[in-house]
Batch of 3 targets.
Target 1
Amino acid sequence: MTDETPVAHSDIAIVGAGFAGIGLAIRLQRSGQTDFTVFERAAAVGGTWRDNTYPGVACDIPAHLYSLSFATNPGWSNVFAQGHEIRDYLERTADEVRSRIRLNTPVLDMAWDETRELWMLGTPGGVHTARLLVLACGRLADPYIPRIEALEEFTGEMFHSARWDHDVDLAGKRVAVVGSGASAVQLMPRIAELADHVTLFQRSAPYVVPRVDRAYTDAERALFAKDPDEIPRLRSELFWAAEEGFAERAGDPRRTEAARARALAHLAKGIGDPQLRKLLTPDYEIGCKRVLISNEYYPAFERYGVTLVNSPIAAIDGGTAIGADGTAHEVDVIVFATGFLAAEQPYAAHVHGRSETLAEHWAGGMRAYGSTMVAGFPQLFVLDGPNAGLGHNSAIHMIESQIEFVLQALAGGGTLEVSSTAEQAWTETLDARAESTVWTTGGCDSWYVDPRSGRLTLLWPGFAHEFRAALEEAVLQLTVSNEARS
């Protein structure tokens, strides 16, 4: 690809137009940097919130916190936003940089050209070069479908929750829901309202706590729009309340016990059948996996007669779904609520650095200095990547922290590159911090942990405010290091 004649050039190329890509683009433009292009493979912006349109899709972080601090929305209808509201918010927000977004333009290959000191991006329209490359591809972009014997021989219809087939009418159908994570908890009650019967295949029971939601009043929304201090005040209140949740995951026995008791009380209130309640009781510590919020999940089992299969699907025989426990269930539709390829990002195989691909560099689990820069990949930033997620607070806070890191690094000038020594030191520090958290000691099989190495690679093992402080220090050290090299 490096021998091809480029068709276009941008100073900065951003791959992905979800929260991270849109957010960075806006901040760049407002800072006066206008020579950038955002590449989006889909026909619309929005990332996760464009792709997930299943019944009941909603956010489990309060809306005023799950939005960009520099692009607030006074009109959120509820404390927790529905998926379509977030999608509409992102569409409106992207209008500020719409002219710089190229939709329906997948980046097929990205390679660092050592001679030209440029990134070469292969697109359907030709090679696009950039001085600096930002991967804002997201961690929940590519659906995961488990291996199931004879799945291709299923006689009914099937699809993943993130690729919802709205042409399939579920009314009167026998529907299998595969999975019991965040998406399943939201969509199962909605399917059960329509279907003749729902069978839910549960690999492991989740912890579920009440969804404390309400609509904002007209007066509240008017105040949000009128008083410029009101939304920042509310965001701060919500943020610090969420920060308290980390103590439950960091080994504080009192906090952990209280959180577990709350979840189990919610289970007892929602499920009257002792045997069913036993099957829905997690066998690991709370917080080891994502703690879910729902007021409808448990009641749906008894209200609609949902069948719980306490095992994954093992095989398909025509129109029969066979569980690993040997039970057979006749179904017409299979809905996979089985998550995403998160620990091993598919895009990594298409990013070529000085001597290896990003996938090869991450063969032992994702890692990056400041959770943002990767050794051996000059002029490259990864947003929402290694150890940049949270299990207790808003992902948008983390993304904004990384955006600030990028802007500060750019202000330092020169060729931006991090050493292997710096990356390794950062990684070892995080690995040590993760050892005492519930994510590595809680006794569960979590997508937060890389299955190849056993390392916690998806989450930041600390408070969200600590992440921002750590990145502020990391970018200062990066600037000093680059100045020394030059």
Note: The first strand starts at residue 8 and ends at 15.
Target 2
Amino acid sequence: MLHPLMFEPIVRAALAEDLGRAGDVTTDSIIPADAMATARLNARKDGRVAGLEVAIAAFRTLDPAVEVTIERPDGSDVAPGGTIATVTGRARALLTAERTALNIMGRLSGIATATRALVREVEGTRARIVCTRKTTPGLRVLEKHAVRLGGGFNHRFGLDDAVLIKDNHIAVAGGIRPAVERVRDAIGHMVKVEVEVDTLEQLEELLSLPVDVVLLDNMDPATLRRAVALVDGRLVTEASGNVNLATVRAIAESGVDMISVGWLTHSAPNLDIGLDI
């Protein structure tokens, strides 16, 4: 579970954006302040639940006394029509927080559901599905948490927790070797170093250098198998590029350790979830 300090500022910012300068003029005009209501969070499609605790925080920000009965916690699967949770509290709070809660849950559950599908495709191989930094600005901690709820794993969270030397770094540095040497002179002993390569020739050069992980970029499965054989366990191998449900199994069967997928956090479709009073 995420600590509330990690998502409460996101929830408050989203509610403030929606409330604007005048508050919920529709709900406040129609619903008496003391009216109570019970609502169910229902899935419209099959999926993996993620973001429920964040959605609950949206309701409780407006009504701290909201009571919640959870049927399908984060990380569980839900069928079409299935109830995820029931919330009871002041009707104004439920209606005003509805869109913020559903936006967050739909987004995160969609990511978890897409991750679940890829993870199922690679079952029986050594490959792990990992996300990238291609996240919605401000929502990275939530979106990466959703990947974990879907059975995947996280790549680095930001620019500061690991080194990833990509093609543009190599171009500016004048080659793989000077790029790696400069990094090693600058970083601490706890920082992992990954280098992106596009060809087997680059990989052969990399194997003589002090790095931890190799990113095998846009290689077909046959080339990936040759790359894994060249590495022979000396580095962690990560495949990236052209990963989808149709290709991921062949990529995994090449023997790579990790398969990174950017679209999990930038293009996964929302899971349709409704709030039914």
Note: The chain has two domains: 4-113+269-276, 120-266.
Target 3
Amino acid sequence: MSAYDDLMAFQRETSALGQIAGRLGWDQETVMPRGATPQRAEEMAAIEAVLHARRSDPRVAEWLEQADPQDDVGKAQLREIRRSYERTIKVPADLAKAIARVTSAAQGTWAQARAHEDVAAFLPVLQEVVALKREEGAALAQGGDIYDAMVEDYEPYTTGTQIARIFDQMRPRLVALRAAVLDKARPAALTGTFDEPTQLRLSQKLAETFGYDLTTGRVDKAVHPFSSGSGLDVRITTRTNEADPFNCFYSTIHEVGHAAYEQNIDPAYLLTPLGQGVSMGVHESQSRIYENQLGRSRAFTGWLFEQMTDAFGDFGIADADAFYATVNGVHNGYIRTEADEVQYNLHIMLRFDLERALMSGDLQVSDLEAAWNDRFKADFGYGVDRPSNGCLQDVHWSVGLFGYFPTYALGNVYAGCLNQALRAAVPGLGGQLAQGDTSGATGWLRDNLQCYGGLYAPRDTIQRASGVEPGPEPLLEYLEQKFGALYEL
């Protein structure tokens, strides 16, 4: 076997073990007994130690030096393996193991603290997580910016400064649009109770409508909806609220966007670095375009109105036009995952600035709640009412995902570019969506983006699919046109 063949065989085994670790995480958030948390922390630490040893194995460096693939796929594989290897060898094995142990335990502590509205119970373990992640960031940055090193895990070849520049372009127009819309009358609200079993049945139908393959996937419940896995085992979760079925339905569509990306990658890349989404920003572009530009479009909401009427009967909305307005209602709220398109990115900018400050040391963990509450009131005009609606609402920091949050807004930016190209490429899309047929849109995304997995760098992936250099203008134009028409601005 050649050095390249040896390297890829080794890499596939490492990727398989990584999938097992991911399955342990899925289990922890769905069906694991609460009392198993301490043992699970040890299990996660043990498998992370094995993974770290493999990812930093000196043979990887030798194979990288000797391998000489002639095709673009082989060169891309080496690019991603080399990037991972060079990052891994900078982080001591004991530190990687400690992070895995603490974040696994912190996840359970966060869930309990959130349930009991008890910030004080969470802060000590969050302090441990932040200290360990700052230590990891310093090892990775080697004198550079710690937060940039964190971002590299989720959006390669992007810096915090570049992200801040994009956000600075977006913020004034988003704030202005929000103010204009909130000055108008609110659309009608749903009335009645929406039982959980019916929500989950319709949720599964929506998953299949958007192309989710249930022979290699499944839908479960979790506190915080997520997608897990790649290749032939890609799972999603959703959640229910008997007063708000949109929470369930649009969480499902959102996670299907993530899952479909993983399911549609070229099977030749299975269990290799190219066999997964290239970045979280690109990943989020898929979930957001599924959820918003497709799922909240006038055409698709007309079909969904019929489905909900059949399932629940009268729920207080007169017709499909009123339902479209309700689905896209802009309203005050605390929860990022429930935020409308106009305000969602403002929630992300808040988190981006706070976590940058935590990583730089400008913000102490003990001051996080006050900083969150002050910033929220400044951005949204009203105060946080309880911790689960504030700094305890998201799981990300408890599991050490610093640098992850800005990719949600980058995903919206990318989705704006993709939507512009999609609408031009599939002129009959509206008519298809009105019949509950998403195949024109999802097929275009599969063929122009999803199938390539990690073959191209993130921004190159978006540019190749959309034909434009990624930037916020298409998203801002889409939002201003859509909500300008809805609210007669």
Note: The mean pLDDT is 96.
